[in-house]
Amino acid sequence: MTVRTLAFAMLALAAVTACGPRTEPYRTAPIPTAEGFGAAVPAGHTVYDNASLADLFVLLAHGLENGDSRKWLQRFEEPVNVGMTGPGAEDYVPFLNDLLDEIRRETKIPISAGKAPHNLLVQFVPGEDFLPLTSNQCMVIFGQPDWKTLVEDPVPYSGRATLEIDRQETMSVIIPDTIEPYKVRECLLEEITQALGTANDLYGLASTIFNDDNAHSWPTRIDYLMLRVLYHPDMKSGLSKARSRDIALRLLEEINPDGRDAPPLPKIQQKRFKSWRRDLLSHDEIEDPVFAITKARQIAARARRLAPDSAYDCTGASFMASVARHFDAPDEITLLNEALELCERVHGPEDIRIAQMRLQKAYTYLDAKQYAEARREAEDIVEIFKAHALDGNVAAAYIIQTAAAWKLNDPNWDGEILERAAAWSAFAYGDDHELTNKLRP
Fold it and tell me: Do the bridges between strand 139-142 and strand 171-176 make them parallel or antiparallel, or are there none, so unpaired?
C-alpha cells in the first residue's frame, strides 16, 4: 500500500489532531470555495417571550460559568479597540476584521481593530505551555498581563477576582498558537463576543455560542440581541441585577417585536445541573471503558429524570452515544439513533446538533465498514456545515466521503474527491497539518 492509501486507516479513526506536541503555528490556507459558506449565519431566531429573554440577559451579563454572580453590570464604556499579537496573529487579521464588521452591523457596538493602546487584546501564547495547564481551548481574562505574568499568578485576572467591580476597562483573549486554524477562528468568535460582557456559559440554552456544547461557532441571533441590549445607550456599567433586568425588558419590548406574545425560552437550570455539567467536562479524563460508560449512563439518566425532552436531555443522550462510540460499545448505533430521535424532537430536525450527530454516525459506519452508509450520511450533511460556517466539520465530512469512496472502489476517489478533502483539511486543520499531508499525493 502507498503512503496515501495507508492514511485512510487513520481516517477511519477520525484522527484530526496531530500526534505529539507542536511548537509553532499551523500554516493557514485559503477557503476552497466560499459559495454557501455562512449562509445560515446568524442562526436561530428571537421569537421568545421578552420577559424570559430579559431573565436570560441577567444570567449572561451578571453570571459566570463557575456559578458566581457579579453584583454589578460590566461592559466597555469606551469604543472597543481590538488588537492582536503573538506568533501567527497576522494570518487571522482578515478573519478578525470580518468578525468585527459583523458584530458592529448586528449590535451597533462601536468596535474595530486599531493601533495600540487596545482595550481588548487577543494574545497568541505558546501552545506547548498553555495546553498542559488547562482543558480550555482558549480563554478570556481581565486585564492585559503578558503570558509569564499570567502563568505566575492568574488569580488577579480571573472572573472571580472581578465580582465586585462595576466596569471593565481592559480585557484579553488568550489563544494557544499551536491549535488548528478552525479552532483559532472558533476562539476569536466566542471569546471576543464574551469579552464584551456576556461572560456566562449556559447548558440548556440551545441556539447560542454561550453554551459549552459548542454546537454553534458564529454568534446566533439571540447572542447578537443580548449584545445589542448590553450596549444600548440606556444600559450602563454599574447597574444592579434588578435594574439591568428592568431596562433589558423595556429595551427588548422596543427592539424585539417578535418577543411580544411569544412562548418563553426553555427553562435554564444552571444551578440544578451544576455538578452534571462538571461531570460532562471532566469525563475525558476517564480511561476505563466500563467505568466511563457507566458514568455516562448516570449523567444521561439524571438529565432524563430532571428535565425530560429538554436540551439537557438531548445533551445527555448524545453524550452517552459519543462515549459508547469512543469505547466501541456494541450498542453504539442504537444509542446514537435514540439520541437523534430525542434531539430532533427537542430542537427540530434542522438544528445544527442533528447534523453533528449524523457526522458521528458517519464515523461509526466507517468504523463498522459500512462504507455506502458512511458516504451517504457525510454527503447529506456537508452543505449544512458550510451554511453554518463550521469548517472543521466540513473537512471531516469530506474526509469521510473520501475514505468511503476509496473503500467502495470509486474511480474518482483519488482525483477530485481526494483533492477536495485535502483542500478543506488545509483550510480547517492547517496547510502543514499531518492529516492534510497524508491526503496529498
Answer: antiparallel
Residue 59 has pLDDT above 70, yes or no: yes
Pairing of strands 80-85, 120-125: parallel
Neighbours of 31 (CB within 10 A): 16
Is the bond preceding 181 in cis, omega lying within 30 degrees of 0?
no
Beta strands in 348-420 (DSSP E): none
Q: Residues 211, 157: contact at Cβ < 8 Å?
A: no
Query: CA-CA distances (angstroms) from residue 352 to 133, 232, 349?
Result: 31, 30, 8
Quote the cell numbers at residue 212.
459549552
Q: Is 68 exposed, middle or buried (0-12, 13-18, 19+ CB in 10 A)?
A: middle
- Rounded to whole angstroms, the Cα distance separating 316 from 276 reads 9
Which tens digit of pLDDT belongs to each residue from 328-345? 888 889 999 999 999 999
Which among 186, 71, 74 has a CA at the least distance from the CA of 429? 186
> CA-CA distance, 100 to 97, in Å (whole number)?
5
Measure CA of the first residue to CA of the last residue in the chain; give whole Å.
Answer: 13
Cβ pair 48, 260 in contact under 8 A: no
Q: Provide the grid cell at 179.
A: 491549535
Give the pLDDT band (50/70/90) at residue 16.
very low
- pTM (global) more than 0.85: yes
pLDDT in tens, 272-311: 887 777 777 676 666 788 888 888 999 999 999 999 999 9
Query: How far is it, in rounded angstroms, from Cα 265 to Cα 47?
Result: 9
CA angle 411–414–417, rounded 5-degree value = 90
Q: What is the DSSP letter of 43?
A: -
**356-to-279, 303, 336, 390 alpha-carbon distances in Å:** 21, 20, 11, 10
Among 203, 187, 264, 199, residue whose Cα is nearest residue 226: 199
Separation of alpha carbons 23 and 354, rounded Å: 35
Q: How far apart are CA 119 and CA 5, in angstroms?
A: 50
Q: Are 162 and 68 in contact (CB under 8 A)?
A: no
% of the chain at pLDDT higher than 90? 73
CA distance 303 to 315: 8
The torsion angles phi and psi of 200, rounded to 5 degrees, stand at: -90, 160
Chain centroid, CA 69 distance in Å: 23
Count the Cβ atoms, other than its own, within 10 Å of residue 255. 15
Answer whether 166's CB lies under 8 Å from 237's CB.
yes
